[in-house]
Amino acid sequence: MSETSPKLRTELEGIPTYKPGRPAAAGGPVAYKLSSNENPYPPLPGVMESVTAAASSFNRYPDMACTGLMNELSDRFAVPVTHLATGTGSVGVAQQLIQSTAGPGDEVIYAWRSFEAYPIITQISGATSVQVPLTPGDVHDLDAMADAITDRTRLVFVCNPNNPTGTVVRRAGLERFLERVPSDVLVVLDEAYREFIRSAEGEGGAVPDGVELYRDRPNVCVLRTFSKAYGLAGLRVGFAIAHEPVAAALRKTAVPFGVSQLAQDAAIASLRAEDELLGRVGSLVCERTRVADGLRAQGWTVPETQANFVWLRLGERTVAFAAACERAGVVVRPFPGEGVRVTVGETEGNDIFLKVAEGFRKEL
Length: 364
Ligand SMILES: *Cc1c(COP(=O)(O)O)cnc(C)c1O
Description:
By secondary structure, the chain is α/β, with parallel strands linked by helices. Helix content is 38%, strand content 15%. It has helices at 45-55, 67-77, 89-101, 117-125, 142-147, 171-180, 210-215, 244-253, 261-272, 274-297, 318-328, 347-363; strands spanning 32-33, 84-87, 107-112, 128-133, 153-159, 186-190, 220-225, 238-241, 309-313, 330-331, 333-335, 339-343. It has a seven-stranded mixed beta sheet with strand order 2-8-7-6-5-3-4, sandwiched between helices. It has a three-stranded antiparallel beta sheet with strand order 9-12-11, covered by helices on one side. It has a two-stranded parallel ribbon with strand order 1-10. Helix 6 (171-180) links the parallel strand 5 and strand 6 (186-190). Helix 1 (45-55) runs antiparallel to helix 9 (261-272), helix 3 (89-101) runs parallel beside helix 4 and helix 11 (318-328) packs across helix 12 (347-363). The longest helix has 24 residues, at 274-297. The protein is globular. The relative contact order is 0.17. The model has no long low-confidence stretch (mean pLDDT 95). Pyridoxal-5'-phosphate binds at residues 37, 89-91, 115, 159, 163, 190, 192, 225, 227-228, 233, 238.
């Protein structure tokens, strides 16, 4: 009897599997994981308490509507509850956005290189990715992205700051871009690193807050997450702010009960402890400056980063550099042939990374 395997959708063929940042190997020489842009601080005691309390009832399903969290977010951002949708991390929400807008024959535009998840979630939907190269300065080329829009375009991602380069687009450029996008194409402003932005007014203005841009633009959706600045990566909770038809579509495409009660309660506790958490973000930003300045003093060209990581364009030496880091005790995120993304983590880990970078520089 000949055996055939179950028929799988042909769209899944060739999907690049998501490569999570390698964990720091237990017992090995690797002590610091600087590969996933996580927050190095342990959970705040108050947040920990809310999670422990929620754990006593995990025999129950969570509140499917995330009522408490939605109310908290509504107050915090001054947006109606009907303009909010939560999901299993903002990657989960991004996937729902694609499911809500695009299928076979449709196009999803994003910069490249940008966030690893975009090509994967686009391909799963059956839609076609249109990747628009970053400028030579590693910044979104918004004019080229607007030029790439066709009548098949359904969604455009703008990752600001961009993962993995850390670069930002500014008000003038982003507003000009939004003017050019047809009103029936959804623009998703992925602001996973929003809290790390410290850029003053530069040429083109400040880095705009997506929440302000969305208010009078029905085709703009803002993605935020609790995974980075708020330190809840392992609990999987993110959210979108968008006008009603889009937010409603997100509620339709959500995995039922996807956001656990632990995650909901931790997110609420984190919003209430925002001062303390943003204080930690401030320390990480100082550390970011130290790392980026240190690299530049060694002679590296580092794009101005507004996120919790730095980008080193190493080209063919990328893999060797990542291996050298690992031997020294830090895991970084290599993009072979392009560069490495290194999260700003614990001071000791950052120091090891700087030391490896210095040694590498001398060999050039
Ligand atoms: C980390 C990250 C996210 C958020 O991921 P979660 O699913 O919320 O953990 C979203 N977008 C970008 C660009 C990221 O780097």
